[in-house]
From TrEMBL:
Family statement drawn from the similarity comment of this UniProt entry: Belongs to the prefoldin subunit beta family.
Gene3D superfamilies assigned: 1.10.287.370
Record GO cellular component, one term: cytoplasm
Record bears the keyword Chaperone: yes
Example GO molecular function: protein folding chaperone
Organism from which the protein derives: Aspergillus oryzae (strain ATCC 42149 / RIB 40) (Yellow koji mold)
Assigned keywords, A-Z: Chaperone
Protein name, entry field: DNA, SC009
Record-linked Pfam families: Prefoldin_2
Length: 106
């Protein structure tokens, strides 16, 4: 039964991807809330390679918002994919059980 095992693996991968992206969203929310508590004239730095570069706080806010929106759309797509994979797995198991109960007659 490679189909159900393969489907279960794909379901597990999709769930792991959703969890990872949701964790990244929470981290972006935390970063955004921490930055909003700072005064507007606070120097903000972003890592670029092996160094840090000073950037305006508004630029960092825009980047955080854009990343969060992208992650949310990724999560939405992955949840649709996950739903589809779960439905496929359920249907294949039902067909398999029906086939076994009928004695192997198609």
């Amino acid at each position: 039964m490679s189909l159900p095992n393969e489907a279960l693996q794909k379901i597990g991968i999709a769930k792991a991807q959703v969890t990872t992206k949701q964790k990244a969203i929470r981290l972006l929310d935390l970063t955004s809330s921490e930055m909003s508590s700072l005064p507007k004239d606070t120097p903000v730095y972003e890592g670029v390679g092996k160094m840090f570069v000073g950037v305006p706080m508004s630029t960092v806010d825009k980047r955080l918002v854009a990343e969060k929106a992208e992650l949310k759309s990724d999560v939405s797509g992955l949840e649709k994919k996950l739903s589809s994979l779960e439905m496929t797995h359920k249907n294949s198991m039902e067909h398999y059980e029906r086939f076994v109960k009928s004695g192997g007659k198609a």
